[in-house]
Amino acid sequence: MRGDEDGRGAGAAGPDGPRPGVRLGAAELGAEPGERASLVQFSSAFCQPCRATRRILAEVAALVEGVEHIEIDAEARLELVRALGIEKTPTVLVLDAGGRIVRRAAGMPRKADVIAALGAAI
Length: 122
Hints:
- By secondary structure, this protein is of the alpha+beta class.
- Helix content is 31%, strand content 21%.
- The protein contains 4 helices and 4 strands; from the N terminus they run H-E-H-E-H-E-E-H.
- It has helices at residues 26-29, 48-63, 78-84, 111-121, and strands at residues 37-43, 67-73, 91-96, 101-106.
- It has a 4-stranded mixed sheet.
- A hairpin with a 4-residue loop joins strand 3 (91-96) and strand 4 (101-106).
C-alpha cells in the first residue's frame, strides 16, 4: 500500500515503531476481526476519499476468504486514534490473524496495493 507504511502499532504515535506484543482485537476494533486478516479503516464523516476507500476494502475483503473490513469512525474513537498515531483519514491498517499491524497507509489505497499488502498478513 502507498502511504506511511511503517507498521507502527498501538501506542506508537511517534517514529519509535511498534511496541512489542501490541494487538488489536474485537474490544479495540468494535467488531470481530477476520480469521486470516483484517482491513481496518479509520474514517471521518465528511471525508470523500473515505467513501472510495470503503468500497475498495469491501471488495478486497469479499474476494479473500477469512478477511474482514472494519471501519472505525475516527471522531467517535479519539482515544484509539491517538494511541495509534492516526493523523488523517482515511488511514488503513492491515492486521494479521493475531491482530498485529503488518501494514499501515494514509490516504486512499489502490486495490492492487491492498491485495499485495494482504500478502504480508496472510
